[in-house]
Specification:
Elements lengths: L1 H22 L21 E2 L18 H4 L3 E3 L4 E2 L12 H18 L4 E3 L17 H5 L5 E9 L5 E9 L4 E10 L4 H17 L7 E9 L6 E8 L6 E2 L7 E6 L5 E6 L6 E6 L5 E6 L4 E6 L5 E8 L2 E8 L6 E2 L7 E6 L5 E6 L6 E6 L6 E2 L6 E7 L6 E6 L4 E5 L7 E2 L6 E6 L5 E7 L6 E7 L6 E2 L5 E10 L2
Parallel strand pairs: 2-4, 2-5, 3-5
Antiparallel strand pairs: 1-7, 5-6, 6-7, 8-9, 8-31, 9-10, 11-12, 12-13, 13-14, 15-16, 16-17, 17-18, 19-20, 20-21, 21-22, 23-24, 24-25, 25-26, 27-28, 28-29, 29-30
Helix pairs in contact: 3-5
Amino acid sequence: MRFRLQLRLETLAMKLLILPLLALFAAPLAAQDLGSPPPTTAPVETTDEGGPPEEGGLTGSVSFEGNLDDLGIAIPAFAAQRDVATPANASGTAALGVELARVITADLKNNGLFKPSGPDALPRPTYPQITDPVWATWSNRGAEMLVQGYVRPRADGRLIVGCYLYDMALKDELARSGWVVAPADWRRAAHKCADLVYSRLTGESPFFDSRIAYIAETGPKDNRTKRLAIMDSDGANHRFITTGRATALTPRYSPDYRELLYLSYVDGQPRIYIYDIGTGQQHLVTQSKNPTFAPRWSPDGKWVLYSMAVNGNTDIYRVSRNGGQSERLTDAPGIDVGGSYSPDGSRIVFESDRSGEQQVYLMNADGSNQRRITFFGGRAATPEWSPRGDQIAFTYIPGDFNIAVMSPNGKNLRKLTNGWQDEAPTWAPNGRIIQFFRTERNTGHTAIYQVDLTGENLRELPTPVDASDPAWGPILP
């Protein structure tokens, strides 16, 4: 991997030589590289549908997910009290009810969590039946769980979406909730409903109503255009953030979801920016003539970790989110990169080749007590701490590049993928799913994949162009 890192540094160095020339023909100011800002993500208002019952239903964890794989869930079309036109669907609220159920079905099915059946193969309940299910209809179809709901327009133009989860064996309601959303945010209501079902049946925190930042790649492999982009957790609502006039790399959502941290070569020099998702404005954190890598947030959003190569030695630095003087945290000979904070902010995991080959190390947040934690055969790179704090995901390189997890002490390694070149893992907000990007052998095609902690349910996320370096943000408010 040392060779690989050196190759990356050399590649970046070439860019440093090439990009100033390109800058003569490019927009001179950083702000001009940005496209139109994406719509602001406003918090979703919850209705007073009432909380879920305190008793009944299933609880558990991913440890018995094998049973959940076979759990049949019927998800018929959401009922419409009146079929009226809405900006969310030109065909009206009845058609929107079908789309809501399809999104919920896809969320639960594509992640391999349950065995849902969607609205196209099911009868459609009437509006009064949403709170009074016809049990015989669904028990005859072999469903153990039933998700019903409704969609109703409000006078102010927004939509109310209600969601109910029923246990067919108990013939009882397990959970209910409702949300008020703008027509453009109707898919968020569906994700919230899928989150409700997932949380109630697994006892785990949700993750469907979240977004992913990544690098969208186009053009030939030796001259790629790399743009910052975001999309919903299921790949919908894709948007480009930057125009592609400057190379963008390694995005990360801020802990409060309002900003994106990323690296840009807007004028031939590596610069770390923070992009405000609501306003479309950005501010500069650092810039340098030295190669700079992999900025990462601290859990409180006040600090940015990054790596910088100076006089042939690459170390990890910390700088305030507002910029200013950087503090060097490592000083060992070699390449120290990829710092990632523990969830409590007390420790940092990073990769280093100071031992002669690339391995994973830990240190305290102030740079003290640096120690190696991986000693298995092969190399290890791009470590990322789980939001739960109980696992570290990393690129495991016994030969090919694969994704693996281990305990924070470096033990209990489990390989999750068997790709040729899988790298750069990022965690779902609940710490149970991992995304990464896969490079296809021979073609160089790159795409985002995800896999759960069991190593099962591998799937590719749809993106309009090649994609790399995903960053999964926290659950949306």
